Amino acid sequence: MLQYNILNKIQVNIEIKDNPYKIPPENLFAMAGRKNKNRAFLFVSRVLGKHIPVCPSLSLLSGTVLAMKYFEECCRLPWPGRDEILSGLRSRQAKTCFSLKKPDLPYAALFIGFAETATALGHSVFNSFNTNSFYIHTSRENIVNPEYEIAFIEEHSHAKNHSLFPFNFDIIKSRCPVVLIDDEITTGKTALNLIKTIHKLFPRKNYWVLSLLDWRTDEDIENFHKIEIKLGIEINTVSLISGQIKINLDEKPVNTNCLQNHINHKPENIPVHYLYLDSFYNNIIHKNPENSRYLKHTGRFGIDFRDQAVIEEQSRRTGIYLKQFRKSVKTLCIGTGEFMYLPMKIASHMGDGVLYQSTTLSPIYPYNCKNYGIKNAYEFQNPQDLSITSYLYNIPPGFYDEIFIFFERDVKKEQYDSLIEQLKLTCVKRIFVITFLRENNKSPACLYNGSYLPDDAVFLLKDLSNQIKEQGNMEREKAIQSGVHYSEMLPIEYKPSDKYMEIFNLLIPKYAQENAIASALAAEKIISLKGRNIVLVSLARAGTPAGILFKRYIKYKYNLNLPHYSISIIRGKGIDENAIKYIEQKHKGSHIQFIDGWTGKGTITRELEQACIKYNQEWGSSLDSGMAVIADPGHCVPIFGTRKDLMIPSACLNSTVSGLISRTVHRKDLIYENDFHGVKFYKEFVDSDMSNQFVDMISQYYSGSIFDKIDTIMEKSYVQDSEISWKGMKDIEKIISDFNIQNINFVKPGIGETTRVLLRRIPWKILISPDSNDLEHILQLAGEKNIDIEEYKLSAYQCCGLIRPVKQ
């Protein structure tokens, strides 16, 4: 007989009648007094991760043990690793148990977890089976006009109303067994209410009720039998410990003077960090315009065994990501309300020393004495509904160094205030607020079109116009050569001289047709090699005009209006993965074709190749790094219009021929985890913008006559040499040797790269091939900046810019 004296008011005597796995009762629960007129006491679970912090793996294991008991009862089959699993629960050492093989259910079963306490327990039971398992949990979420709702009552609860919200979840309409899961049943009325509700809508023969603890009286058990007879069904019950309780309740009120919370100080200057996980979680359910977005894999709307691998991998990646923010051994992760399983699963991947618990709606008396289940309490407004009071329990001040608290959806920052104030009372050193889904208007900021027409390009870039200061070329050069990454600074945007603009205005008509033919050929090869189910993705900013030209040609020739996005790629940092995720989510099933204007020595080609390999490995995607360019003098991409070092007029200017955007920026204090890479938008240059004029002058040649010419060239192009030979590297290697250059990044070959280095950097000299032409603008820039010109034989390029270390 177990005896408990709760708050000197409630005497509870427990007679254990069945404990098949011989689990010490004190391993499963403690007792506490509840502020509830319907039930004055509470079994406080030591394994659920609700009111008492636990190792997340232990909580997950408790679900596995309950699943094992169900499997042995209903299937009469042995569970793999049974002894090891039971030993883990008895000893509260769970980590080694999760490499064991999960059994297959021989038939389909629908598992239903009860909110809010048993949502993670139910999910853990469901996740313990390899096949034929389906899961949904009840919810107290206020969902407006749901697709379908099954409502029922939890009579003894402080929050009585429950609902099921099956969404595209037809298994609930089948005749498969329904398996209800709760942490404990005292009367079983809630389970019976749900059984009656489901049976009225979707009748079936078999129901099961699983619980860690079963305290039903003989009368309660008889009520189950009566429902079986009345409905013509079978209800089986499974628990880890069952017995009966006797309660003696003193009618006098609780002496609240003896309830000391021992929380009387609040440290100042505790940093609060807000992190977003929407780049990890894109499985979203949109109920209707009146509702927030919801994560699919919580189980609120229904999931099945095929979702388990995705949940496991997303949780693993997220846990590894969050682990990098940990700075100590003592870390507490906190789920919120019924949002328990995903945070718990993530916490299990965040390393050693992590404990887990969850906020709750249950008001419980705190009392710091031995064997009492609630030592202290923190009361606050629920950030997602300020009219609701929520609680946290059993966090000793000063015990943890950092807290990670998880929310499914974002709210306004001020709605966290009440919670944050309470968390600061725990005396942690750092607080992290983790949000899975930010509000729709908090998706990564885009510039959308820059100065281009809406149909031409969409920039997936964050506007940093008022947040970053431009720096002079010499200042930047010193910083870059001292180790500062070039993407962390912006150069002062070059303002062309009248003479330079005069040259530029002559270059466009002079080379427009040649550029039109080259861009048309590249576009034709894209269609020929990749088909029509593609998304054009140009690399800002030199790739943006090229992407527009390809898009326009394909539209004119094939009446096919392909989507075109312009995103960032940065040497040494890779591609903007958030932008790629955005595109993949918006255009599921389409193939991405990357585009740039030209190639130099192939640095970005290599960067893109490595970025795609990394992205594909991490996200299970199939990005093709094969880039398309107008001109490929470096001989390093598979799709090109020409391999001549072609004069592309857009190389001659910066923002004023690229949609009025700067080069892309990636700096940690400006670009956060879920942001797109950044740019500055130069609205002050609107009057001198030639972005649209340039693409208009090229694309005006896209007509019937050029189509015929392109078709003729295309017939012969497959005979021509399209090998990726990296021919340009021979020039690079020779230059490095002849001029004793120590850093390959100080060599800028080709018309495009030479122009860029003159506009942005401090070149030492410009090499000009003897047989070159088309270099009027380069000669003009070099003259304006007093840069030496030297004749030098080049095989792949017409020219090359050289940078010398600043100290020289």
UniProtKB/TrEMBL annotation:
Domain TRSP residues, every copy: 298-423
Taxonomic superkingdom: Bacteria
Alphabetized UniProt keyword annotations: Transferase
Domain Cysteine protease StiP N-terminal residues, every copy: 450-698
SUPFAM superfamilies the record matches: PRTase-like
Domain PELOTA RNA-binding: 726-804
InterPro entries (alphabetical): PELOTA_dom, PRTase-like, PRTase_2, PRTase_dom, StiP_N, TRSP_dom
A GO term, aspect molecular function: transferase activity
UniProt domain Orotate phosphoribosyltransferase-like: residue ranges: 28-244
Transmembrane intervals: none
Protein name from the UniProt record: Phosphoribosyl transferase, RNA-binding domain-containing
Organism name: Desulfonema limicola
Native organism taxonomy: Bacteria, Pseudomonadati, Thermodesulfobacteriota, Desulfobacteria, Desulfobacterales
